[in-house]
Design brief:
- The chain has 245 residues and is an alpha+beta fold.
- It has two domains: 14-204; 206-245.
- The protein is 39% helix and 32% strand.
- It is built from seven helices and eleven strands.
- The chain has helices at residues 2-19, 56-66, 97-104, 110-115, 143-150, 188-193, 206-244, and strands at residues 24-32, 38-46, 72-81, 86-94, 117-122, 126-133, 156-162, 167-170, 174-175, 181-187, 196-203.
- The strands form two sheets. Strands 3-4-2-1-7-10-9 form a seven-stranded mixed β-sheet. Strands 5-6-11-8 form a four-stranded antiparallel β-sheet.
- The chain is globular, with a radius of gyration of 27 Å.
- The model is unreliable at 1-22, 209-218 and 227-232 (pLDDT under 50).
Length: 245
């Protein structure tokens, strides 16, 4: 009897897996402004059979993740159900993209893994953004989970990034020449086996150039200003001497 019950549970588990094989999707729009601030809008669609709560649990996790970070917050969150999906739609706003990177860095939560990690390489006239999303460590999935992932042929992770300046080069599969937006789309099965790496080199925004120029020449400007003050002081002293004579 126990054996039969065990077999029934196994069959039901596999049936649920087959039913939900194309029912996990992640879609994101990441916008960065010239001053480094911006927003991240995400939509997660999942089959109810795969969701462990009513969607409010995710809200609590996001709020806890950003609770101790000034300049970073959950601006909106809503969850609802369609005919065959539970949808979680939320927007995160930040004063600087580095705040988001710091908040999710080292987080073991599955939600943070979808955001990934960010690194920026600075060049003379451009920036290179490198984003890495690793949902699982290689070789850590059990056979049943691998089977489920392999069957999700129609499930994808879509990442769109909108920059404040022209994209010079990228490994994205969707990018218009001279545009400021790029899009990556990955099969869920691919994300379970390897790290997803997204790269985009953008032209340095004018605001950033001005800021860098100010930093570079601050010492020179201070020296010039100091010299001007000294010359004015000498001129005043010389004028007072002439008048005293």
């Amino acid at each position: 009897m126990k054996l039969i019950s065990s077999l029934i549970r196994t069959v039901l588990s596999i049936s649920a897996l087959l039913f939900s094989a194309s029912c996990v999707e992640y879609e994101e729009d990441f916008t960065i402004k010239a001053n480094g601030s911006g927003s991240l809008h995400s939509v997660i669609r999942v089959a109810p059979v795969l969701s462990k709560d009513d969607g409010q649990g995710l809200k609590g996790k996001l709020e806890a993740m950003f609770a101790d970070v000034d300049g970073l917050s959950l601006a909106s969150y809503k969850t609802f159900e369609t005919e065959d999906r539970r949808v979680m739609d939320f927007t995160i706003v930040f004063d600087h993209v580095s705040l988001l990177s710091e908040a999710i860095g080292g987080q073991g939560d599955s939600v943070a893994k979808y955001f990934g990690t960010f690194t920026v390489e600075k060049h003379e006239d451009s920036y290179t953004m490198i984003r890495t999303v690793k949902l699982h460590e290689p070789g850590t999935l059990d056979p049943l989970a691998k089977l489920g992932a392999s069957m999700q042929k129609d499930s994808h992770l879509t990442y769109r990034m909108h920059f404040p300046a022209e994209v010079l080069s990228t490994n994205a599969d969707n990018a218009e020449p001279g545009g400021t937006s790029v899009e990556w789309t990955f099969p869920v099965a691919m994300a379970t086996d390897e790290a997803l790496v997204m790269k985009a080199e953008i032209r340095k925004p004018l605001l950033a150039k001005v800021r860098d120029s100010v930093k570079e020449h601050t010492g020179l400007w201070l020296g010039v200003a100091g010299g001007v003050v000294v010359l004015l002081g000498l001129a005043v002293v010389s004028l007072l001497r002439k008048r005293s004579k």
